[in-house]
Amino acid sequence: MAKEITIYDIANQLQISPATVSRALNNHPAINEKTKVLVNTKADELGYRSNKFASNLRKQSTSTIGVIVPRLNSYIMSTVLAGMEKVANEEGFNLIISQSLESQKKEIANAQTMFNSRVDGLLVSVAFDTDSFEHFQPFLKKKIPLIFFDRILENNNCPSIVIDNTKAGYEATNHLIQQGRSNILHITGNLQRNVYADRLKGYQQALLENEIPFQKAFLWETALNLEAGKEVAQRIKAMPNRPDALFIASDLCAVACISALKEMGIDVPNDISVVGFNNDPVAQVIAPKLTTIHYPAKEMGEIAVKSMINHLKGTMNLDKTNAITLRSELIVRESSRIIEHSA
Amino acid sequence: MAKEITIYDIANQLQISPATVSRALNNHPAINEKTKVLVNTKADELGYRSNKFASNLRKQSTSTIGVIVPRLNSYIMSTVLAGMEKVANEEGFNLIISQSLESQKKEIANAQTMFNSRVDGLLVSVAFDTDSFEHFQPFLKKKIPLIFFDRILENNNCPSIVIDNTKAGYEATNHLIQQGRSNILHITGNLQRNVYADRLKGYQQALLENEIPFQKAFLWETALNLEAGKEVAQRIKAMPNRPDALFIASDLCAVACISALKEMGIDVPNDISVVGFNNDPVAQVIAPKLTTIHYPAKEMGEIAVKSMINHLKGTMNLDKTNAITLRSELIVRESSRIIEHSA
DNA sequence: TTTAATAATGCAATCGGTTGCATAAAATTT
DNA sequence: AAATTTTATGCAACCGATTGCATTATTAAA
């Protein structure tokens, strides 16, 4: 194994001090341009690579941002991560990604690992069942910036990056009402989570404005996954008075539900209209194509990392930022467009 | 900001040497059990956290594994990564993940970043257009283990973790033939990549065995994404002699194609049967449900990281391992089951 | 009791950059 | 030409854990 080249090797060969080499490599203003060129040339020649550990050890910073997500393999999260990776990569930062698998317990363990890994900042989208902020306190104590995105915790002075879920929920529901629907069943996730709670708020608001009474029986809390979608269809089939529309807070769940409904001979959108959420690619490939809310996942990831890095660099202070809200958008497709009314 | 606790603080308070503290924390056999308890208790009490940089610097290892994937946000890759993260987390390793976005250029840059980050090992699934091994040479030179998974490069003595794509391609095609199909169009990706080349081999083998001549015109190289699926449907519609079956090397593409075909009034599976690849959740929620090859993505991720860690720990030497092949499986669903033959 | 073997701990160098402060060299001003 | 300012470089301590080797304490064998 070839010996690793250090700044001392460069210093020796050029007959200058390691301090000068270090400063030259870091483009320090006090160093003569010619010296910089000399050092960089020699560094390339010898195949020098900086030792981040020595550097981090001394500088007490890591150029690493931690990310905790509920799961890696969901369309939304993998897309958010894709955006994050892109920006981090461009800015010379590393990402340490871990998943809580929707469990607070694992999230706590992950937070601790991140803390011990001395990430410079932490980006978090919380698990389904997280009900405590406790495990993030160490970060605040050490003044390590913490930003929540998508699924956020409130009342803790941490900035958050979100979409306006209330507005999105309102638009989805209102659209269904405009299409002449009034018995709208809302399928959602854990209502402790802002994303679902807010969508519900929007749903209720739209009902209220249109003088449709809200019924608890038309609000179902589920796991919002593929299986849940199938079960929802089963339950709907068994209902004496079926809804005429569904607002489902996740496309994959919605699509699974539509698929099952169709198998049962229930027509979408004529018997039941459906609006999903996320604008997952799957929304475009089923019949009928799914009306949904476009979720700017990639942008959210990019902005989250960008904000974090700017804050770390001191370019932008986040201390007074409460929330950054991104634009979402209703995309109307066939699943909510009533083609022919059963006369 | 509270001062960071070091082993020196613990040593001072207990009136022992830092060396003993270090050994105690690392459970060194030469240290008395009582001392270990003492040290660990004090460490907890003071809120000590190990400084990985000091440790890495000294040990010249990082407990970090680099991963380069074509994209983060595809079903297969995000699932592989989920498996990887799970094992790495359990084993106390960190993952640095980066995406090449299907570009060799970016892949080269990523490899360099990984090299400079001094990952202990590297896991790679190559980009669509990667045709050189050059950028991985530095790793071999420094004896940093390199494992390819899914999309591999051959002839370089690096172990790889794959499924038997040839067999899978054979089974998919053979199944279609068993269903009475003989004009089977194969939609695939860049044939430079083993996954697609091998699936093609399997396809050809199945044709050969059944004495169906292979036609170049029935082999289409595409981007295998959603858009490609739509285009394929367009092209099929325009064909004078349409195929009676499709073997598409990716579910999302297959599903998009089926959706477009149906819109054109072409029935699946009666007019055209379809087999996809991956067993993406989307395969279960469209009508007809998609026959596909189950791809053990999560397991692949788990095994890749597990193998890497075992190799790094010396538990298992990979130098003589050429390839680990995982089991894939044909899952027959409706898209290839001919329900009623047009009499 | 003395000697040998074993167990437990400490000393001090090391990993490789970074940075405050001092100093030397060059440029500018008086 | 001397004094002052500016520019460039070097010295040496430092970040915090690890580990080969030496040393001391303890136990077992002679």
From TrEMBL, chains A, B:
Annotated signal sequence range: none
Gene3D superfamilies linked to this entry: 3.40.50.2300, lambda repressor-like DNA-binding domains
Annotated Pfam families: LacI (PF00356), Peripla_BP_3 (PF13377)
Residue ranges of every copy of the HTH lacI-type domain listed in the record: 5-59
GO molecular-function term, one example from the UniProt record: DNA binding
Keyword hit for DNA-binding: yes
Keywords: DNA-binding, Transcription, Transcription regulation
Name assigned to this protein: LacI family DNA-binding transcriptional regulator
Biological source species: Arcicella rigui
Classification of source organism: Bacteria, Pseudomonadati, Bacteroidota, Cytophagia, Cytophagales
